[in-house]
């Protein structure tokens, strides 16, 4: 992948890209970006803050050892690339709720990705921890954005497989959420998956019991865990709660609609879980408030009443669509401010 067009997302590139020699590619990277602090490190690579020298734009540079790349695919121009890059190219269409891949290159020992980075952002895990838990109104807006991001990925034929707070970035200036880290992702399929990738504590019961899962049902399970973490401040299954014991206990302060939605998503039988479109129609999210942050620690609530009568999942105002998303679950993310 060439370094000649750093502002152009991969899907917009036409025709094969001339591949520079490794030494020239690495030198070109140093000439076009100033590397900053380490943002996160994990089993699959490291992510660094960086600045694009041509215009001062903040970016993130993810570096993955070549020997850790297990799956490869093909870009539209025929270039062979790690599957994570192929998936990012599919979803990097300018949609605001998914991190945009700006460019990538292949070095002798590493795969390097240059990704967009909001100037002041924080992963959702740290965002929640700073507040212990999120009020329902705030959680509702962020959760809606994540749903929009998942729907976008679905429309692009991509299954993320690692939805969790660490993989959702919140832009502290705008309230925009972004889905990040497609390192565990794969192509979407209607048939069952018999290989698990992602975070074990988010794996659905059918995988643990039978060794298979459907993409949408497993995604809904992880979304139920995510919503629980937002409004309760902790993972629902980290305190010894066994799935066979029965109904999940939830705080009395939560609305009945919120409790019902969490329990619906966390149905042990995958056939009992809602579909993604069901979540857009659910009463808890249908009459919702979208939270916009203005300035450090300040919030402005925008109220939007959806089409409650017809339960149209797309009947919400433009201000409520202006977000979605997540940073890299294969790393241990830090605050990006």
TrEMBL record:
Catalytic reactions on record: L-seryl-[protein] + ATP = O-phospho-L-seryl-[protein] + ADP + H(+); L-threonyl-[protein] + ATP = O-phospho-L-threonyl-[protein] + ADP + H(+)
Region annotation (Disordered) ranges: 1-26
Keyword Lipoprotein: no
UniProt GO cellular component terms: cytoplasm
Positions with biased composition (Low complexity): 1-16
GO biological process: negative regulation of apoptotic process
EC number assigned by the record: 2.7.11.1
Database matches in PROSITE patterns: PROTEIN_KINASE_ATP (PS00107), PROTEIN_KINASE_DOM (PS50011), PROTEIN_KINASE_ST (PS00108)
SMART domains in the record: S_TKc (SM00220)
Signal peptide bounds: none
Keywords noted in UniProt: ATP-binding, Host cytoplasm, Kinase, Nucleotide-binding, Phosphoprotein, Serine/threonine-protein kinase, Transferase
MF terms in GO: ATP binding; protein serine kinase activity; protein serine/threonine kinase activity
InterPro entries: Kinase-like_dom_sf (IPR011009), PIM1/2/3 (IPR017348), PIM_Ser/Thr_kinase (IPR051138), Prot_kinase_dom (IPR000719), Protein_kinase_ATP_BS (IPR017441), Ser/Thr_kinase_AS (IPR008271)
Any Pfam family matching the protein: Pkinase
Subcellular location: Host cytoplasm
Family annotation (PANTHER family): PROTEIN KINASE DOMAIN-CONTAINING PROTEIN, SERINE/THREONINE-PROTEIN KINASE PIM
Stated role: Proto-oncogene with serine/threonine kinase activity involved in cell survival and cell proliferation.
Recorded family membership: Belongs to the protein kinase superfamily. CAMK Ser/Thr protein kinase family. PIM subfamily.
Protein name as annotated: Serine/threonine-protein kinase
Species name: Geospiza parvula (Small tree-finch)
């Amino acid at each position: 992948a060439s370094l000649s067009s750093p502002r152009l997302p991969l899907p917009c590139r036409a025709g094969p890209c001339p591949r520079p020699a490794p030494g020239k590619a690495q030198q070109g990277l140093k000439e076009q970006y100033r590397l900053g602090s380490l943002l996160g490190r994990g089993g699959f690579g490291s992510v660094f803050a960086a600045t694009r020298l041509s215009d001062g734009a903040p970016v993130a540079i993810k570096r993955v050892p070549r020997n850790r790349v297990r799956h490869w695919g093909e870009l539209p121009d025929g270039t062979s690339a790690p599957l994570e890059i192929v998936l990012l190219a599919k979803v990097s269409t300018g949609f605001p709720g998914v991190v945009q891949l700006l460019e990538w290159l292949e070095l002798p020992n590493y795969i390097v990705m240059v990704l967009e980075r909001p100037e002041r952002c924080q992963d959702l895990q740290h965002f929640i921890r700073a507040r212990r838990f999120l009020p329902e109104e705030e959680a509702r807006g962020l959760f809606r954005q994540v749903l929009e991001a998942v729907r976008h990925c679905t429309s692009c034929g991509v299954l993320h497989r690692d939805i969790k707070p660490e993989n959702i970035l919140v832009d502290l200036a705008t309230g925009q959420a972004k889905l990040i880290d497609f390192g565990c992702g794969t192509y979407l399929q209607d048939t069952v998956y018999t290989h698990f990738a992602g975070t074990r504590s988010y794996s659905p019961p059918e995988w643990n019991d039978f060794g298979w899962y459907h993409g949408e049902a497993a995604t809904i399970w992880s979304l139920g865990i995510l919503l629980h973490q937002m409004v309760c401040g902790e993972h629902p299954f980290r305190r010894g709660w066994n799935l066979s014991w029965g109904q999940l206990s939830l705080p009395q302060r939560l609305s009945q609609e919120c409790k019902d939605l969490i329990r619906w998503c966390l149905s042990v039988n995958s056939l009992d879980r809602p579909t993604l479109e069901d979540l857009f129609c659910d009463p808890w999210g249908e009459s919702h408030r979208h939270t916009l942050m203005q300035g450090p620690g300040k919030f402005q609530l925008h109220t939007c009443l959806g089409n409650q009568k017809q339960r149209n999942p797309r009947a919400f105002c433009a201000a409520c669509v202006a977000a979605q998303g997540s940073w890299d679950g294969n790393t241990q993310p830090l605050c990006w401010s």
